[in-house]
Design brief:
The chain is built from seven helices and two strands, in the order E-E-H-H-H-H-H-H-H. Strands 1-2 form a two-stranded antiparallel sheet. Helix 4 packs across helix 5.
Amino acid sequence: MPRVAGVDIPAQKRTEIALRYIYGIGPTRAREICNKTAIDPGVRANKLTEEEISKLAAIIESDYVVEGQLRRQVQQNIARLREIRCYRGLRHIRGLPVRGQRTRTNARTRKGPRKTVAGKKGVKEMHRA
């Protein structure tokens, strides 16, 4: 398993796919990196030479923010929003969706499992009474 940017990339996958295992590198950046280093994106990661792996590592390290540094940057941005108590910061604090999604229904990923309220009747049941 070749190691690039502190991550073991899968050996049996094509280079452009294997690079995506690095946090901060998606399909477009992976192709871009392969073009910059003149490495065929179709070649398997285990077929790369030490020289090619060091080329990949050098390009990624110099031109892109990835892995721990990127994670830290994202956390700092969220912390700043919380600190200044802007709308998005408050949504982060309350654990609600940040990007304008509805919360009356759905939003279960951010809100967590449903908390059932005892004795609360539904709208249909109230109209029957």
